[in-house]
Here is the input.
Amino acid sequence: MRMTSRTRTRSGTPRWYSTRGARRSPPRSPPRLPGFALGRRYRPARCPSPRAGIVPRVEPILVFGPWSERYDLGPGHPLTPRRFGPGIDLIRAVTAAAGGGPIRELPPEPAPDTELRWVHDAGYIEVVRRFSDQPFGSWEAGIGPGDTPAFPGMHDASAAVAGGSIRAMAAILRGDTDHAVHPGGGLHHAMPGRASGFCVYDDPALAIAKARLAGLRVLYVDLDVHHGDGVQAIHLDDPGVLTLSIHQSGRTLFPGTGFVGELGAGTAAGTVFNLPMEPGTGERGWLGALRTVLPEVAATFGPDVVVSQHGADAHAWDPLANLRVTTTAMGAAARLVHAIAHRWAGGRWLATGGGGYDAYRVVPRAWAHAWLAAAHLEPPSRLPAAWRERWAGEAERYGQAPLPEWLDDEANAGLRPDGSQDAADRRAIETAALVRELAVPALVRAAGDLGWWRASVELDAGGWSGLGAPVGDGSRVATGTGDTAPGIAAPGITAPDGVIEVLDTVDAATWVGLDLASQVIAPASPAGAQQLVLAALTSPHAVRVSAAVAGGTVVGLVVSAAPGGRRLLLGLGVAPDRRRRGLAGELLRRHVDGPHGVEPWDAAVTLAERDAVEPLARDTRGAIARRLLEGAGFEVGRAGGPVGDADPGALVAHRG
Ligand SMILES: [Zn+2]
Ligand SMILES: [Zn+2]
Here is the structure.
């Protein structure tokens, strides 16, 4: 779980996440929204979760207490504890305004060294302690004048941020709550052996480690404008943690990493994904990119718990970065993550804060959105007047006034979209399309593109019947529509257990009478995969399915379709306990040579084609795919273009 790290020395001038090469716009005043303009306000389709009247199984927990405000890097530092005043106050005010009850709070306490050492080096913890007592030493392990200066009591304050996220995860694992929100958490740049970018101990990585110690698989979603480099690095080699970060490109912003080609290695290849955005990307590009990738990635990975980081610094008014995201889009993103936790992770969700340097106009609204999603409360459109009155003076004093009237922003944050923003938004969608090819198996992509089955929770109201009800081990149980279609009879297929029968062609009527073993084919949930294949079989896309069946359960499967002129191989898989016996090769040969005459075939294999639960090493996967395809008469070569550049092991294959 740990990786070694190097400690870099660096001169000590403050640089506050310096942008490199990008022109930085001064903070802009928020747009004033005249009452008659209400109809122009940008309202993306709401995900169905935070409806009034839907009650969470257990009330969510807000992680906040006296320790939260002691993480204080000094006067004038952008990551100011002053944000807790208006931020926590707004969470309470909107909860009351939306009719929510009293908030369950969990106060952070310093995590013991035994827990910090899950991801941090013992030597580094000692350095932090030393600075804690003597905050004037020379620059060491990332601590010193600049981004992460020493301060008295630094160790305990930092350990308390870590402790808040760890205790929140513990509460989720115990079943005390489904959702916890830790606004003071999200210190995602901290590395095993050094502080970085305002972050001393990596609380999201530690919360993930807590879940991993319990054997759970974790999806981490990082919405901060800066790449979530610490969390990615710490869990880089662990195939049980999938990290997805959307951020301003490392070419123009700290920490200079988070490119599409960072994909993980070995067995963990395909568990690291990054969506770098060009400066000027607006809410359309940012949210569009996230929606393109996140639902299908979650469906394919099948996490047991979701951890997300909701840094508010992607906002158009943030003084340290150059994206043009709105609180509207941040709210939609929070609800999307929440919905994904319910559909694919049994509801288990820890949300943290993160960056965000417009502490009065932006951060409180971003936090409120994450909290309202977790509390299943409908976001109010207008901010409570009393909240605005309480914080107007302080906001004015710190140059972040006037306070907005609305929780959501005006379209495009009130900025005129220009040619460069249009280009950045287009680029965001192109980047997302590329990452989707690398992250999502061909079968799941085809299902989405051809309308067979959608991982997108926002478009799928069928998955919501179970919301709010106990879901048990929901990560393995689909709560969606039933797995049979009306009007299709289900003739039984029987074979003695252990004897495998290969069916060259499976039709819909046969399919509904079969069970599907785990880990045969994407998505991760067998019930979801069954629905997908059934929908494919009843589509007009000439779908062909061959199956290996043992005792009424499908233990091997091949799926192809011919939506255009050529036939596409979309998926091939065998259950773990049936592998290494030549079954996949036999299935593929019979599928390709079936009684359908000669057809031209295409196949493309990226690192998305893998067993998400027990992945083999990347090289082994590639060798097996090549051998199987060649054994079935395909000519196999390396993928070219952007896919081949990002994933040098990607293959393309043709036959006929
Ligand atoms: Zn940030
Ligand atoms: Zn919920």
In short: The chain is about 30% helix and 10% strand.
